[in-house]
Design goal:
With 408 residues, this protein is of the alpha/beta class. The protein has three domains: 175 residues, 3-Layer(aba) Sandwich (Rossmann fold), CATH 3.40.50; 84 residues, Helicase, Ruva Protein, domain 3 (Orthogonal Bundle), CATH 1.10.8; 110 residues, Winged helix-like DNA-binding domain superfamily/Winged helix DNA-binding domain (Arc Repressor Mutant, subunit A), CATH 1.10.10. The chain is built from 16 helices and eight strands. Bound molecules: adenosine-5'-diphosphate (ADP) and magnesium ion (MG). The site of adenosine-5'-diphosphate has 19 residues, from helix 2 and helix 10. This is ORC1-type DNA replication protein.
């Protein structure tokens, strides 16, 4: 008989290891916090806010520090009767243009039932509606746009908003934009005029080093994990792995949570190093699968071409032979093949993502060339492509070929 039973020998508060958990204390970011506070100071003094640009890789505390400081700021400002501060936070991850961000902002500010639709208005109309809503609130308004890099080069709003007051679009309201980006290149892509205004103040969040990650893990483990349920050296190991790879606190916390789940499933009383090792390879696998799902259509076809070669036991295989296979798949899927050179670039990308591996061959006078093979299990590559490509009969053939050759 199946039965649910409570298991709590490892976790005391597992939610504290989740992405959405807001820590009470921020570790190891004193310098960045100081710089950030200085950039926000005009708000407290009653002046026009600075526009602030925060950047750094994922998992380095940009969102956590921003949430923490903006909350603090609202609390502290509330003791001044002559200040009226509103904070609007928006994660732009799923929005890929200024237009969509502006629509979201309008809708966030409007009461339910008065939302506008996300298509159909000219961009300037949406901006105008946004200004109307901002004017209606008045005072000082900080607009925090997280993961702003996802709007790409459709960045007009970032030109408009920070200058709205100077351009007479807003009369009584003081608006400041806090833009947060996981991608520093985003800043360089921006129109120089946008750079000047949006990036009045820039704060970089560098990757964490191992000892910093260990402190972050320790303070979180105190809340999340039962006393004594972590073996000596485990936090240090998680911190070292994450520091070596990305310097991301998110990665370190993910490792710890998954290691804890593995310990729990194995009915262990402690999280051990071996659990962390298993967790690491599972996360690695997930990351690669994620990478496969996010490929562009031609990246997928290039990958499927390698899988097809692999099913015939013909890998490692050089670029031009993969190209032949790729062209055949393009014809079956009714898409125009890219040039051999572009496909070559796709193969390099797949290698960077850890989906393919390459070995260099020497061919005498004609220079060196690479041979590629799958660096992920054949079946996971094919499953992932079967989900996203409409090539059912080709994929069936590849699977059948693999079965004949015992490729798994
Ligand atoms: N300095 C820190 N102190 C405590 N927790 C942190 C710190 N930096 C990051 N974290 C935690 O790590 C995770 C990732 O941080 P986050 O702020 O979301 O990164 P980013 O926004 O830079 O991608 C979150 O769970 C966050 O609470
Ligand atoms: Mg973030």
């Amino acid at each position: 008989m199946h039965r649910f039973e409570r298991k709590q020998n490892i976790f005391r508060n597992k939610d504290a290891l989740n992405e959405s958990y807001q820590p009470d204390r921020i570790e190891e970011r004193d310098e960045e916090i100081e710089e950030y506070m200085e950039a926000l100071q005009p708000v407290v003094d009653g002046w026009e806010p600075n526009n602030i640009f925060i950047y750094g890789n994922t998992g380095v505390g940009k969102t956590a520090v921003t949430d923490y400081l903006l909350e603090r700021l609202q609390k502290d400002v509330s003791s001044y009767d002559d200040l009226e501060l509103s904070v609007i936070s928006l994660n732009c991850k799923t929005l890929n243009s200024s237009y969509q961000v502006a629509v979201e902002l309008v809708n966030e500010l409007r009461p339910t039932g008065r939302e506008i639709s996300s298509t159909g208005y000219p961009q300037q109309t949406v901006f105008k509606k946004l200004y109307e809503e901002l004017e209606a609130i008045g005072g000082t308004i900080l607009i925090a746009l997280d993961e702003i890099d996802s709007i790409g080069d459709r960045d007009e709003l970032l030109y408009e908003l920070p200058r709205a007051r100077a351009n007479g679009k807003l009369e009584s309201t003081k608006v400041g934009v806090v833009g947060i980006s996981n991608d520093f290149k985003f800043r360089e892509q921006l129109d120089p005029r946008v750079q000047d205004t949006l990036c009045e103040r820039e704060i970089q969040f560098p990757p964490y080093e191992a000892p910093e990650l260990e402190n972050i893990l320790e303070s979180r483990a105190e809340i999340a994990i039962v006393d004594g349920a972590i073996e000596q050296g485990v936090l240090n190991f998680c911190a070292a792995l994450a520091a070596r790879d990305s310097g991301s606190a998110r990665q370190a916390l993910d490792l710890l949570r998954l290691a804890g789940e593995i310990a729990e499933n194995r009915e262990a009383n402690h999280i051990e190093r071996a659990h962390v090792e298993t967790a690491r390879s599972q996360l690695e696998q997930e990351r690669v699968e994620e990478g496969m799902r996010e490929l562009t259509p031609h990246g997928r076809l290039a990958l499927l071409a390698v899988a097809s070669r692999s099913a015939k036991e013909e890998t490692p295989c050089r670029g031009r032979d993969i190209y032949t296979e790729y062209v055949t798949l393009c014809e079956s899927s009714g898409s125009e093949p890219l040039t051999q050179r572009s496909v070559h670039n796709h193969l390099s990308d797949l290698r960077m993502l850890g989906i393919l591996s390459a070995s260099e061959n020497r061919s005498g006078s004609r220079g060196n060339y690479y041979s590629y093979e799958l660096d992920v299990p054949f079946s996971s590559a094919v499953e992932a492509m079967a989900d996203v490509l409409r090539l059912d009969s080709e994929i069936d053939t590849i699977r059948r070929m693999a079965a004949i050759n015992d490729v798994v």
